[in-house]
Amino acid sequence: MAPATTAIFATLPPRERWFVRARLATAPLAELAARAVGHELLEVGCGHGALLALLAAARPQRQVTGIDLDSRKLAWAERSVGRLGNVRVHAATIEAFAAQHPAAFDTVFVADVLYLIEPGVWHGFLSAIHRALRPGGRLVLKEAEDDGSWRARKTLWQERLMVHLLRRTRSSGAVAFVPRATLVAAVADAGFTVDETVSLARGYTTPHVLLTATADTAPAARA
Question: Could you give all domains of the chain from N- to C-terminal order, each with its CATH number?
Answer without folding.
Answer: 3-215 (3.40.50.150)
